[in-house]
Specification:
- By secondary structure, this protein is mostly helical.
- The longest helix is centred in the middle third of the chain and has 20 residues.
- It contains three helices and no strands.
- The protein starts with a helix and ends with a helix.
- The chain is 84% helix and 0% strand.
- The protein has one domain.
- The radius of gyration is 12 Å and the shape is flat.
């Protein structure tokens, strides 16, 4: 397994875990946004720019949700 693949597995797993925990505290929404950024970076590094672009958009959406969630 290459380092890029390992990074992708960790980034996507982190993102999914934070998504599953979002209902517990708003802090997990911010961590989900961070996970989306990490997954976006993986997409661009791996050459899958559409995935990278979509994850970047999800990161912005999650960050905005974090800011408005009490």
């Amino acid at each position: 397994m290459s380092l890029v693949t390992l990074y992708g597995v960790v980034a996507v797993s982190f993102m999914m875990t934070m998504y599953a925990l979002e209902g517990r505290h708003r802090f997990f929404i911010a961590l989900f946004a961070l996970g989306c950024l990490a997954s976006s970076a993986y997409g661009f590094i791996a050459g899958a720019w559409p995935f990278g672009l979509v994850e970047a958009v999800w990161s912005v959406i999650a960050w905005r949700r974090f800011r408005v969630t009490p």
